Amino acid sequence: MEEKWSRLKSGTDIRGVATEGVPGEDVTLTLDICETITQAFVLWLSGRTGKAPEELVVSVGRDSRISGPAIAEVAAKALSGCGVRVLDCGLASTPSMFMTTVDLSCDGALQITASHHPFNRNGLKFFTREGGLESEDITELLQISERLSELFEKGGETSLPQGKKGEIVPTDYMTDYAARLRSEIKKGVNAEDYDHPLRGFKIAVDAGNGAGGFYADKVLAPLGADTSGSRYLDPDGMFPNHIPNPENKAAMDSICEAVLESGSDLGVIFDTDVDRGGAVDSKGNEINRNRLVAVASAIALEGNEGGTIVTDSITSDGLKEFIEKTLGGKHHRFKRGYKNVINEAIRLNNEGVNCPLAIETSGHAAMRENYFLDDGAYLCTRIIIKAAQLRKEGKTLEDFISSLKEAREEREVRYKITEHDFRAYGESVIAKLEDYAKKQEGWTLADDSREGVRVSLDKDHGNGWFLLRLSVHDPIMPLNVESNDEGGADVILSQVGEFIKTCSGLTL
Length: 508
Description:
The chain has 508 residues and is an alpha+beta fold. Strands 1, 2, 3, 4, 5, 6, 7 and 8 form an 8-stranded mixed sheet that branches. The chain has a 6-stranded antiparallel sheet with strand order 19-20-21-22-18-23, covered by helices on one side. The longest helix is centred in the N-terminal third of the chain and has 20 residues, at 135-154. It contains 15 helices and 23 strands.
């Protein structure tokens, strides 16, 4: 493909700069390009389903970013122009758009989002009933788009249908989606006041002005929860308060502050399109990253004793011990990338392994009971149910993971690859580090590493571990370090630095 098209691929999504406003960032995801990609999706979906375009039903939704309404309108018209019946869902979460393929029998779904990226960016995320499109599907979609674009420019004939336009139907699916989450909480808590299981609970929600504001108003409040401590529920695509991202320090500081100021029992936070979530306990402590994985694992393993939890590669040693020794499960570290962990969990289940959860430390969590859909609202719903159940026993979420051993220090350093063929060079660095590690005193190569090189270091060499890996998409090699000693991270970084000095193609 020409760079015009290939640069729009971001793993299993299509993303680009959709509006001006940031110096040096030219618009790459134009409305014309969005139209062409949507038309390409019709051809792709028609081929996959065996249905003619006029037999297809496709839903369209968007998050709150400023370019969303215009792209959604163009996409809906492009689908309609091909004869497709369109369900226009307006402002919606990404997980809800997948659920339209389940509850509304849509053949496909399109969510317009760029997740946690800045206001000037946007993207297209596609679903079928089988889940989100894979990386190779996105490549094929962009190749079809490029061929269509060339035919349009030359005035040639395309395989797009010409004729009657499909109906565009305004559809309020988010109300149904919220009702489903309310029902989960009612059943899970099973309170005496069945319809108000959260009465007496104070829960703060921080939506970061993304699409997650519905969770406070349409899920928690009708169940009796006091959500008065919530922040930034109104959609605002400029994100004036903080980046909607549970991994962002300012975002987590915001929800921690909201919980403490309002005296809430719990806080939850979402990214822009609500496919990721995080939580905060009543003391303002983050339930994020390894803590979030621990809570989600404990919930998922109830009724799945001895089950396997798939995580990304940078989870801690303490988490592995918690899953395997405290919970009695099995910990399966895999690659970074939410689609990677989800697909690995699906693969294991297909092979007969009881695997109820795939989760990244970024907050992407997909439960088997929920179609292996990475859904921040569903994850927070399960956490709230557990918090309510624990409250009946006089316990808290803090008690739930009290035995989780946490590192004293955590660091991440990102090395840029300066070599042109960055992937080949990164792989050569990994191979070289494996050999190097075997010769170092106090270093032990992990026996369960499925990405990059993970090494444990004894008490005399930093008392922790490090992982050097190749970024999923970019010419970057992230180095993650954890130590159980104060000052230990610097000790580990110093030792790894001696190896990095031998790699001329890496620079900070």
